[in-house]
Amino acid sequence: MSKISETSPKHCAKKGGINIKNRHKKLFFTFSTFFTGLLLLIFLVWLILHPEKPEFSLTEADIYTLNLSSSTTHLLNSSIQLTLFSKNPNKKVGIYYDKLLVYAAYRGQQITSEASLPPFYQSHEEINLLTAFLQGTELPVSQSFGYLIARDRSAGKVIIGMKMDGKLRWKIGTWVSGAYRFNVNCVAIVAFGTNMTTTPVASIQGTRCSTTI
């Protein structure tokens, strides 16, 4: 007499559940392998192209006003115009610049309000000139500001820092990276005129700026 083998409904359901789980696992491993490979490809392209930091230099800085409101207050009025030279040194990587803010500083003190520059795209090895007019009206400064600026004026020159903060994105082919914060620091050695309120004073020596990302 042959043995009758019966599979219970519970056993079938369990077996079917295992098959479904196996399918899900296969799909999961397929997609994870695909995305891992894609990320690895992007990373390899990134390593091969190796984007270099943008280059900036200060080509001109004109100071029109740099005076305390009065001898008894510590409020500064200032107006400065500057021109920056910007270069993308990469041969195969473009750069998007976003949210650019420029301001001037003297001995660690901000002496103008922040000026906003329009966002722009810089193609491979492209060069751009950026201009900004910086102004400050009754900005609070330290008590020693008047003494320091007078001492530098008597020496015939003053060192002004030009700073730019912003965000950039790398463009490789059609792929665009996330945003990276960057900072640019420039130094302008400016010769003082006899009357800072009426006589524009030009600086520049074409100083190279430092860029950090």
UniProtKB/TrEMBL annotation:
GO terms for biological process: defense response to other organism; phloem loading. The keyword Zinc-finger does not apply. GO terms for cellular component: plasmodesmatal endoplasmic reticulum. It is a single-pass membrane protein. Residues 86-186 form the Late embryogenesis abundant protein LEA-2 subgroup domain. It comes from the Eukaryota. Keywords: Membrane, Transmembrane, Transmembrane helix. The chain crosses the membrane at residues 27-49. InterPro entries: LEA_2, NDR1-like. It is found in: Membrane. Pfam families: LEA_2 (PF03168). PANTHER family: NDR1_HIN1-LIKE PROTEIN 26, OS05G0367900 PROTEIN. This is Late embryogenesis abundant protein LEA-2 subgroup domain-containing protein. It comes from Arabis alpina (Alpine rock-cress). The lineage of its organism: Eukaryota, Viridiplantae, Streptophyta, Embryophyta, Tracheophyta.
